[in-house]
Amino acid sequence: MAFFNLDQILNLEKWQDLQDSLAEVTKLAIITVNYKGAPITTHSKCTPFCQKIRADEEIEKRCHKCDSRAGLEATRINEPYIYLCHYNIIDIAIPITIDDKYIGAVMAGQVRPVFADSQTELERILHSTASMESLAESAELRRLYEQIPVLNYEDILQMSEMLFKLCNYIVEEATARNILADMQEHQSALQTQPPDGISVNAKVSDASFEKPKNVKLLPALEYIYSNTHLMISLEKCSQLCNLSPGYFSRCFTREFGVNYSSYMNRLKIDWAKKLLTETDLPITQISDQLGFNDPGYFIKVFKKLEYVTPAMYRRYALE
Predict the structure, then answer these.
(1) Fewer beta carbons within 10 angstroms: which end of the chain, N or C?
(2) Domain check: are 172 and 263 in the same one?
(3) Same domain assignment for residues 259 and 303
(4) Element (H, E) at 107
(5) 22-40 pLDDT per residue, tens
(6) How far apart are CA 179 and CA 17, in angstroms?
(7) Rg (CA), the chain
(8) Over the stretch 134-147, which tens digit does the pLDDT of each residue have?
(9) How does DSSP classify residue 153?
(10) Which of 141, 165, 184 is the last residue of a domain?
């Protein structure tokens, strides 16, 4: 989905402005990369040393490889990952995830640390003999290397935590907005009329539906819409229609284009969306009144179909 492409979630022009501001405040060079390690923003406060080496196409590939590997490692540990690049410069990978899916990272750093106590062991994520040889052989590179900013390691740790919380909050908010906007543009093909008011124990007249072409399914639909507070099994519906479960299932899928379970989940969530926006019922009560035994399961189903939690849906739908 587009929602898992970082450059389609964010307004990159505004994100670039924010990134530039953060770089000024933290004194860190910052760039945002996708899940492959390829930049989607321009470097903010990139040091002259890194500008020089990234101008070399082959060396830049090593930089991208460092960014990609570091981003994945940060996602694995679910926290900022501080490491040494192939030139032994400190960099930080700030993972950006959606539903535990790694979609990119904010890469910060290009600094040399000052350790308060004993030397902290940091992983050198990519060993490159060619990189270190080029540094040893070039007086210009050594001069630029000495100009790289120096920061206390404790300050680097604090800034990495701040960036982690800030970036993921912004991406989460942007994702929710994009998803809800997309839902408004592309309404579900399954049109249902949820019950009115706070009570979900609606009758057929309150929660209407189009009569099916296969009239054999009518008793089941009438029962479903008359008992919105129940989680009704396929077996129960087949009994109401005087059909075997297998035959009922095939008829139902032919009629609606989805199986019974998928239909019921979508129907319940559509009702839940109505209640979330038109009542102030707590989410746990909505879950209970729609027949979900466990609020956690209700939230899981809702998020699977709508890509946001019920609470987040209510928040943005009411704006």
Answers:
(1) C
(2) no
(3) yes
(4) strand 101-114
(5) 999 998 999 998 877 788 9
(6) 24
(7) 27
(8) 888 889 999 999 99
(9) H
(10) 184
Which structural domain range is residue 224 located in? 189-317
Do 173 and 193 have their domain in common? no
Same domain assignment for residues 214 and 111: no
Question: Whole-angstrom distance between the N-terminal and C-terminal Cα of the chain?
Answer: 25
Closest CA to 54 of 68, 64, 44, 67: 64
Nearest Cα residue to 79 out of 96, 103, 63, 101: 96
Residues 247 and 149 in one domain: no
What is the C-alpha separation between 288 and 229, in angstroms, rounded? 8
Beta strands 150-152 and 101-114, pairing class = parallel
> DSSP states of 165-206 as a string?
HHHHHHHHHHHHHHHHHHHHHS--SS---PPPSS-----TTT
3 state SS of 131: helix
Residues 6+ apart with CB under 8 A from 180: 308, 313, 316, 317
Q: What is the mean pLDDT of each run of 10 residues along the chain (319 residues)?
A: 67 92 92 84 93 88 85 87 90 83 87 73 82 87 92 90 89 73 51 41 49 91 91 94 94 93 93 90 92 91 85 77
Q: What are phi and psi of 150, to 5 degrees?
A: -115, 130
Q: What size, in residues, is the chain?
A: 319
As for how many domains the chain has, the answer is 2
Q: How many CA atoms lie within 13 A of 268 on its CB side?
A: 29
d(CA 93, CA 106) in angstroms, rounded, equals 6
Separation CA 232–CA 5 (nearest Å): 38
Cβ(164)–Cβ(79) below 8 Å? yes
Q: Which domain-ending residue is among 161, 184, 207? A: 184
Around 114, how many Cα atoms within 13 Å sit in the side-chain half-sphere? 6
Integer CA distances (angstroms), 216 to 163, 228, 252, 267, 290, in order: 59, 20, 10, 20, 25
Contact predicate 108/45, CB 8 Å? no
Question: Are the C-beta atoms of 208 and 43 separated by less than 8 Å?
Answer: no
